[in-house]
Design goal:
Structural class: alpha/beta
Number of helices: 11
Largest sheet: 7 strands, parallel
Helix content: 25-40%
CATH superfamily: HUPs
Shape: globular
CATH topology: Rossmann fold
Distance between the termini: 46 Å
Strand order of the largest sheet: 3-2-1-4-5-7-6
Strand content: 15-25%
Number of strands: 7
Radius of gyration: 17 Å
Number of domains: 1
CATH architecture: 3-Layer(aba) Sandwich
């Protein structure tokens, strides 16, 4: 049974927190692979600073040592605003997969009921929600997503049905943000602990975020 994770984002730039999230999901859920899907045109936030091609280039460098992580450019290849529901449909149509898991941070989960066609997302995949320091699930989101009925406490329970379950990962601890990384780059602070050295070299060579 093929089980695939999907981790989307701007990746502007990709940082170690993104890779840690992917590796955590791979190990915790025993996934067969993860697709990282960089957003082209976001619906609920400012556009990316780096171009799509630069963000793809950085992702390729950051994942070279992780054969289970692949980059899917479907959102960049698709015209218009990037909607997660379209990405999940695209992956289901292009890859033989039994179960999909959308991996997202708690901050993103707290905005999910504003996403385009978000109810359809829960008919296409499960959710792995990664905890963020000092953040809780908002009441409106818990009610809207029927969290009380969907939440599971183990991987076995998560995959007990084909889609629609939600696992809250309280043991994931990481608080790196691309916003903070860009600020460090602009002020020329050392952020070698936050960003892969190959990505930092790429940023310097292409004069990104300066």
């Amino acid at each position: 049974m093929a089980r695939l994770g999907v981790l989307g984002g701007m990746f502007d730039p990709v940082h170690n927190g993104h890779i840690q999230a992917a590796c955590y999901a791979l190990e915790r859920l025993s996934l067969d692979g993860i697709k990282m899907t960089p957003c082209s045109i976001p619906n609920h936030r400012d556009p990316a600073i780096a171009s799509a091609q630069h963000r793809l280039g950085m992702l390729e460098l950051a994942t070279t040592e992780y054969p289970a992580i692949t980059i899917d450019s479907c959102e960049i290849d698709r015209a218009g605003i990037s909607y997660t529901v379209d990405t999940l449909l695209s992956i289901r149509q292009s890859v033989e997969v039994d179960q999909l898991v959308l991996i997202l941070g708690l901050d993103s989960f707290n905005g999910i009921i504003q996403w385009h066609d978000w109810k359809q997302i829960l008919k296409l995949c499960h959710l792995l929600v990664l905890s963020r320091p000092g953040m809780m699930v908002q009441d409106a989101v818990a009610t809207g997503t029927q969290l009380a009925a969907r939440e599971v406490n183990s991987v076995g329970e998560l995959f007990a049905r084909s889609e629609g379950n939600i696992l809250l990962a309280q043991d994931f601890h990481q608080d790196i943000s691309s916003t903070a990384v860009r600020a460090q780059l602009q002020s020329q602070e050392d952020n070698s602990t936050c960003v892969d050295h190959k990505v930092l070299q790429y940023i310097a060579e292409n004069n990104l975020y300066s």
